[in-house]
Amino acid sequence: MLAALLGGAMIGLSASILLVVDGRVAGISGIVGGLVEPRPGAVGWRVAFLGGLFVGAALLAWGLPSTVAPRGSSLPIPWVALSGLLVGFGTQLGSGCTSGHGVCGLSRLSTRSLVAVCAFMGTAAVTTFLLRHVLQVTR
Amino acid sequence: MKQHVVAAVAGVIFALGLGLSGMTNPDKILGFLDATGRWDPSLLLVMVGAIGVHLGPAQWALRARRPLLADDFERPLQTTVDGALVSGAVLFGIGWGAVGYCPGPALVDLVAPSGSLLIFVGAMVVGTALYRYGRRLRLAAGHAKPIEPGAAT
């Protein structure tokens, strides 16, 4: 529980540093989207942030390996691929994901982000319920 | 250059926060999303911790003229709730609820990937490109409003 709170605080710290110093939003889907469709002047900081993200991931693999241990999904592979497509397409269409809307947007007290968070949390809960308990595809 | 170093440091802290908080474990995410079984509420604390720290700086940024090392703030260009926002969030929620991965943790876990994670991230990038380039085609054909899709909201 304490780890969750502390980890969350670090995510908030990261978003704060990026916003206060660089004026940029720590939304992962936005950062990825800006690299998939690059524009002049909008690539460098994104590459730097993701580079840092992978350095952090390597530090986790070294110091806290259980946090990044490979976990295969019990979902059939075509469903995994479809889920990836939905996450990529949906976060672009909806202008943000858990970090962009959930952390940055809610901290700005944005109505759009509040609506988005309710929509994706609600839909995700229903999807998990259906796949686990009704269709029994996942464990 | 300084800006990029700051962005890289922020990236490192972001990944460490995701790992420490449990967000990089999709089983834990599904345990949070599944309210019917043994519900794991700890991810709510992740949000509390993140917003608790970020709220003040985010409010400052709304009022400040400029950030410390850059010329301008990245501001959301859309301000109204519309169909694209809700339908995009719904599509994202379906994928997130099925696999337990949202974009950040999926990228961090690439450091030790399972086969299904590689497929997930590949498909996520394809889905991102489908939207971005599909939008570009619709813009060229005059079917879409010329609004830059912001990083968030």
Index terms:
heterodimer, A: 139 residues, mainly alpha, B: 153 residues, 2 domains, 0% strand
Explain what the structure shows.
The complex is a heterodimer of chains A (139) and B (153). By secondary structure, chain A is mostly helical. Chain A has one domain. Chain A is 73% helix and 0% strand. Chain A has 6 helices and no strands. Chain A has helices spanning 2-22, 28-36, 44-63, 77-93, 98-107, 111-134. The radius of gyration of chain A is 17 Å and the shape is globular. Chain A starts with a helix and ends in a 5-residue tail after the last helix. The mean pLDDT of chain A is 95. Chain B has 153 residues and is an all-alpha fold. Chain B has 2 domains: 1-73, no CATH class; 78-153, no CATH class. Helices cover 65% and strands 0% of the residues of chain B. Chain B has 6 helices and no strands. Chain B has helices at residues 2-21, 26-33, 42-63, 83-99, 103-108, 115-140. The two termini of chain B are 27 Å apart. The model of chain B has no long low-confidence stretch (mean pLDDT 92). Chains A and B meet through helix 1, helix 2, helix 3, helix 4 and helix 5 of A and helix 1, helix 2, helix 3, helix 4 and helix 5 of B.
